[in-house]
Amino acid sequence: MEARHLWLEVIAVIVMITGASCLQGVRMEIVPEVVQRGQGVILRCYYDLENAPLYSLKWYRGKHEFYRYSPGDDPQIKVFNVKLIHVDRAKSNTSQVTLYDVDFYLAGTFSCEVTADAPTFSTLADSKNLTVVSLPSGRPVIAAERNRYVAGDTLRANCSLPSSKPPAHLTFMLNNMPVEPTARNQETKDDEGTQWSEIGLTLQPFHYVNGYLNLRCIAQIPGIYLANSELQLGSSMREPVPERVTSEGNSGSGTLRMTFVTILCLGTLHLLLR
């Protein structure tokens, strides 16, 4: 009976040891989560082994392992050949991996997997998504058909922006008032990837502020990129017709009257002299 009780205690201890998990709180971080194409990114993995030794730390892009740190192996660091993943060994260690020359292909899910050493060999993992972008190389450019407009005219203008991935969203503001979607075309791209949008807006008196039109184009990739440009347009108010022009229609009759009076006076003077 005592031997059986002893065996039960041994089994309970074994179960307790092998079933216990000493690994807690695995958390992954990507800095920055949105990276410009061609630049670098740092992948960090935070974990708590509760004083247990580390067996391995593995890094994955999708299902492909590309980096491993194993303290008990020789060498401790192994870098696997995965397409377009460039590891900076000098800036990678037991808790982070640094990648350089990041390309669009790498956008997606990265994971770190932590395994504690014997006796538990417990394993936990965490994942994060990496976004790779190509931002426009310049600011938006606005062009209009004319420099001056009056109420009733149709303001035709366009806004262009160098290529980007993902595409930027272009919007117009006229004197801080949004231009209605019905007055503008959707964003498009030309063969070189240049993004552009145009408007055709019939101007109303309320569009003017102090006689001017301030047209603004806003280019935005939410959470990544924001830039704007402005173009100031004048008001070509119709000038009053000069007075000499308005009286031109009566100039003929006035001249005839003056000629008649002159002839009459000369005739009278001739009679008196006789």
List keywords for this structure.
five-stranded mixed β-sheet; 16% helix; alpha+beta; six-stranded mixed β-sheet; 3 helices; disordered C terminus; 274 residues
What's the arrangement of secondary structure elements?
Layout: H1 2-19, E1 24-31, E2 34-36, E3 41-48, E4 54-61, E5 64-69, E6 77-79, E7 96-99, E8 108-116, E9 123-133, E10 141-144, E11 148-149, E12 154-161, E13 169-174, E14 177-178, E15 188-189, E16 195-202, E17 213-221, E18 225-235, H2 243-246, H3 251-273
Protein model, in words:
The chain is elongated. The longest helix has 23 residues. The C terminus is likely disordered. The strands form four sheets. A six-stranded mixed beta sheet has the order 2-9-8-4-5-6, with no helix packed on it. Strands 11-18-17-13-14 form a five-stranded mixed beta sheet, with no helix packed on it. The protein has a four-stranded antiparallel beta sheet with strand order 10-12-16-15, with no helix packed on it. It is of the alpha+beta class. The protein is built from three helices and 18 strands.
User: Rg to the nearest angstrom?
Assistant: 40 Å
Within the largest sheet, what's the order of strands?
2-9-8-4-5-6
The biggest beta sheet, please?
6 strands, mixed
Overall average residue pLDDT = 80
Helix percentage range: 10-25%
Oligomer: single chain
Q: What's the N-to-C terminus distance? A: 175 Å
Principal-axis shape equals elongated
Count of helical stretches: 3
Content of β-strand: 35-45%
Name the poorly predicted regions. 4-20, 238-274
Order of helices and strands: HEEEEEEEEEEEEEEEEEEHH
